[in-house]
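INFO batch 0412 | record 1 of 1 | parsing
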Amino acid sequence: MPTATDDPTRPREPARYGRVTPQAYLVRERAAEYRSEYFDGEIEAMAGAPEPHVIISGNIFGHLFSRLPPACRAMQTEMKVRSEAANATMYPDVLVACGERRYIDQRQDVLKNPVVVFEVLSPSTERKDRTTKASAYRLIESLQAHVLVSQKEPRVEVYARADDGSWPCTLYQGLDAIIRLEAIGCSLSLAEIYRDVLTAPPSATAEEVQDVSR
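INFO prediction complete | emitting tokens
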């Protein structure tokens, strides 16, 4: 997910503020014109996403919305996720919640129990998406899958929670590949995810790979 930059062709570190409590962050965030995320006392400003990022996120949301079972709901962009164990509040690009949705308060804008989260990778934030955010997401007890989606090529990494607590990754490449999300009973093809963004059809593959997010 992109962060603020003065020059979009030269990404820099996200803007940071002094250490604050999660409660103070939330008061600030709800009144702010622009979005920020919270990581254990630090607020990091965000910025608008480029067109490919927006289209990919919209494609994922749209196809999930029409396929999810009645007990599940896809949400996009404005819904925050809280990881109490990591003391973090984040904006996934797309998330899925199933069953009773639990929020931190009656505003219902910070979800505590997502089942699947999607992040569309950006050059300026890929490292954070693979490290800080991935670690925070995985400490959420309800989470069953964490999905990283490339903007540059048809490549999707699905990290699924195993019984032993590990997060093995299945790598999907090529527009003909189909990702399977067992936790929500849905499948998505990479052609659907990358519609109107990528058109060249490299050969499809799905393989188990080492967890590269650590």
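INFO post-check: The domain at 49-209 is CATH 3.90.1570.10 (tt1808, chain A).
INFO record closed
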